[in-house]
Model the fold of this input.
Amino acid sequence: MIVWKSKIIENWGKWSLANKIPIKPTRPLKEEDIGSIKEGSTRSVWMIDVPTSSGTFPVILKLYNGSKTFLKYYEWNVYKNLKDTRVSEFMPYFYDIQIDAENLEVWIFTEYLNVFGEKPKFKPADLYNITSSLARLHAKTFEHQPVAELIRRTVPEFQTERRNERLENIKGYLQQAKEDDFLKKVIEQYCPEIYELVERDLDFPEVIQSGKCLTHGDLHLGNICYDGQTIKFIDFGVATFSPCWLDVVKLVETILDNRFEEKEREIRDKCIRIYLDQMQQRGISFSEDPNRLYRMAYLMRVLEKELRRNLQATLRGKRPFVSQLVLKKISLFSNELHLI
Ligand SMILES: Nc1ncnc2c1ncn2[C@@H]1O[C@H](COP(=O)(O)OP(=O)(O)O)[C@@H](O)[C@H]1O
Ligand SMILES: [Mg+2]
Done:
């Protein structure tokens, strides 16, 4: 078992971090300056309170360890490859990235930001600001932009083949769910149409043709930060070059489920309008009705990700079923789209 704190102190000195941050520390780092934010089997996140003459200066360390770390596409490539592009304003500033190939570790030292997930009162206006920033990030990385080529080399590209495979999986899980008393009842209650729906053509070419860009892929409030007026996104671990609407639905619907269930429709409509306006101001428009694109993208995303994963985990006895709201929205959106 590695004692990370002593290793952090050792590497902080070895890589001269004191010279790479914007303040001058008043003494060498001690274990009590380091706090753990999250510790998992392949990565951990640390807050380092660097001692300064006026108090402390916070630095975030995200540490990947283990062999999975050395796959081709990963978060640090996003930070490194895009640092001199117009995309960098949407990402945390990084002080240093060190790849320790011998120990299979990657050390990312970044600026500390305020995380929306910890904001005491999260308001619809916050969601509108985030939506607007997301549109700007998307527009800057859209497929016709010069930077798109570099992004395509940095993150995986959306793959239709993987989708088809996952859709086949979900059909199998739904059949298995029929044999499970609890799942059968929940599906019957929230979305009895789903059996018929998954037999339909769910390719949604309109969503794919509406344009690809850098998509974050995991937009929940723990991965979105603010720093004064600026909004930044952290945790680009599952970023891809994918249809833009897939990111919009993940952002908006996750927040609607957790925070504003009662004013859902009004807030959703406004987010779609804001996204569209921001994109249009940057010369990007959509030939299909954006309200339809949004609903199709939601079905694409949840059938492949949230619902598929949750059904899989529940059927394997690993996790309880928590996707009732997802089922409810699948029912609502597929009816609004006249798919059923
Ligand atoms: N730059 C940062 N500033 C402030 N907090 C951060 C920063 N980076 C990460 N965190 C905190 O650590 C948590 C986990 O980091 P994250 O990069 O999202 O890792 P994971 O891939 O494990 O979700 C975040 O949800 C946030 O609370
Ligand atoms: Mg995260």
About this structure: The two ends are 54 Å apart (CA to CA).
